[in-house]
User: Which sequence fits this backbone?
């Protein structure tokens, strides 16, 4: 019997689908069964359109992410009725096929809505599947970046450009699919394809490749581990064997014949920036990874072909770029091709189509360039620490529930950027952290402002005199809100308490803020400013703890020191000055896509 693990976020996403409830489920296959981690929503439930819609969706998926089920509406929860309905779209059943059914009256989805095809029958038994809040086992990421230069012949006939590019892409895919194409794990002597492997035993699994790489798969920054990032990326390269040996000695031995044709034609040279990511479970066979790589590259080349033809002007092809995205609360990586030269505003209709396809809300950006997924190697080279709170191992307080910042931010503190703001720049640094959050979430592409730019912004809005620029004067939460509005168009809500002890009454309000808005909060009191990244709140007792990011740190980007010394950590009510009044700046998410 095939086991199936369904991520709770998938059920929550599908439950919120109001208009169209029809599409496919996505997941990874392991020796233990299927892990359902995502879904694609189709606009047309006509069986004749199902295959085309499925193939179109597959071009965005990371290698290793496969269609493992279907979801649809039904007036009946009888397994036989469901089998009859699903057979219109999938004429055969793979072992472990997951079916999620929604009846017209359903507002939520539970185990009663889930069916699994096992042993050629459709069953509804809780022991067949489990609903999980995180992946049963960590996914290993493999990344291959390989620019491929091709030449496309230009002819005068109508439609020749499309045909010529299609021929070039088809030839590339045929070459990549041949046994002469192999993949090498960088910094190792391991070479593999879909049928063989050199450098490791034939039955090796992908976890053994992690053991061979130079990077520690569970440690990226200063020796601290993170539950949400448990595997670094294994880098691979593609190689082509230009000499083929006749191992089975078939056919006569003869000299090669070369035919040389001379003709004049126009051609354009293109560089296709292949950047493929594969996500597989640790027990996946390495030879299976080879097939995943080949499929992913060919799929991406087809997607590039489509983008090039959509944006070609005359016989001039645009440059294209690959962007990898990882939607909030999802482990699935989605790869999208965007042409250079088009702004995020010009690509809005494309993003709306992607949001609709992946069942995502239209109120939060997911596929803007600023939302691009940061791989461990990107984080280590970024310069600033990213999300240091994710490496904290402290347990929630008894009876409490943690409400945390959603998404990525960078840690900004005293003395960074070769600028001495010790003893006066804490609110400036907190503002920089807030702006970094809006950059990472794709709400703005404007750079993080310097102290001087922040001061100039306050002069521009009329809050300060011109002599304020270049000074070492403090700013507070009101000034932070003015800057957010003026610099990146973000409005804020201001909350205040007359003394530090009253912050105990703000637990519920902050919990709602992090649950709905998810933005970091700047708080100023007395002469100090901090950033609140979350709260640990007990609904019954009202007890609250605060997750604080402290901008007063003056050292290097050493995560171990920052966590061990409490510059990022959970604080109780004794952290606040009982005699000081506090203002909080709570930035609000813009309603954009």
Assistant:
């Amino acid at each position: 019997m095939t086991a199936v693990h369904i991520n709770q976020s998938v059920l929550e996403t599908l439950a919120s689908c109001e208009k169209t409830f029809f599409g496919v489920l996505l997941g990874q296959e392991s020796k233990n069964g299927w892990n359902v981690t995502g879904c694609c929503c189709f606009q047309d439930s006509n069986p004749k359109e199902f295959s085309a819609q499925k193939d179109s969706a597959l071009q965005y998926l990371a290698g290793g992410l496969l269609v493992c089920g279907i979801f649809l509406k039904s007036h009946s929860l009888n397994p036989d009725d469901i089998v009859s309905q699903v057979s219109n779209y999938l004429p055969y059943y793979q072992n472990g096929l997951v079916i999620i059914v929604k009846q017209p009256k359903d507002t939520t989805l539970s185990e009663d809505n889930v069916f699994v095809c096992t042993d050629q029958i459709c069953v509804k038994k809780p022991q067949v599947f489990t609903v999980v809040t995180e992946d049963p086992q960590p996914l290993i990421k493999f990344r291959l970046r390989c620019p491929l230069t091709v030449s496309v012949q230009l002819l005068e006939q109508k439609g020749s450009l499309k045909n010529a590019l299609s021929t070039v892409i088809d030839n590339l895919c045929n070459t990549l699919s041949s046994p002469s194409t192999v993949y090498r794990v960088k910094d190792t002597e391991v070479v593999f394809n879909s049928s063989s492997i050199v450098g490791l035993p034939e039955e090796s699994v992908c976890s053994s490749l992690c053991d061979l790489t130079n990077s520690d798969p569970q440690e990226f920054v200063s020796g601290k581990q993170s539950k949400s990032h448990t595997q670094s990326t294994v880098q691979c390269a593609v190689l082509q064997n230009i000499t083929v040996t006749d191992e089975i000695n078939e056919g006569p031995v003869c000299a090669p014949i070369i035919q040389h044709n001379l003709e004049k034609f126009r051609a354009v040279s293109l560089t296709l920036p292949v950047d493929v990511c594969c996500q597989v479970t640790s027990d996946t066979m390495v030879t299976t990874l080879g097939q995943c790589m080949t499929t992913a590259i060919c799929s991406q080349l087809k997607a590039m072909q489509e983008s090039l033809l959509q944006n070609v002007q005359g016989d001039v092809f645009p440059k294209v770029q690959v962007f990898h995205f990882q939607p909030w609360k999802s482990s699935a990586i989605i790869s999208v091709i965007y042409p250079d030269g088009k702004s995020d505003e010009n690509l809005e209709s494309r993003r709306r189509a992607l949001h609709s396809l992946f069942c995502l809300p239209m109120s939060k950006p997911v596929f803007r360039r600023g939302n691009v997924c940061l791989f461990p190697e990107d984080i280590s080279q970024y310069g600033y620490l990213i999300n240091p709170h994710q490496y904290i191992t402290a347990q929630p307080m008894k009876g409490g529930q943690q409400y945390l910042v959603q998404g990525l931010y960078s840690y900004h503190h005293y003395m960074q950027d070769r600028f001495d703001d010790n003893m006066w720049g804490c609110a400036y640094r907190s503002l920089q952290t807030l702006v970094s959050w809006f950059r990472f979430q794709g709400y703005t592409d404007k750079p993080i402002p310097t102290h001087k730019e922040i001061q100039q912004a306050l002069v521009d809005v009329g809050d300060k005199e011109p002599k304020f620029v270049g000074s070492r004067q403090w700013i507070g939460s009101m000034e932070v809100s003015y800057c957010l509005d003026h610099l990146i168009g973000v409005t804020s809500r201001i909350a205040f308490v007359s003394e530090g002890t009253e912050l105990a009454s703000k637990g519920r309000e902050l919990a709602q803020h992090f649950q709905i808005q998810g933005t970091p909060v700047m708080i100023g009191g007395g002469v100090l400013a901090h950033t609140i990244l979350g709260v640990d709140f007990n609904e019954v007792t009202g007890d609250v703890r605060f997750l604080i990011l402290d901008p007063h740190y003056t050292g290097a980007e050493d995560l171990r020191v920052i966590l061990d010394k409490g510059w990022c950590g959970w604080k109780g009510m004794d952290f606040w000055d009982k005699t000081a009044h506090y203002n909080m700046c709570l930035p609000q998410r813009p309603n954009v896509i």
Observations:
- The longest strand covers residues 139-154.
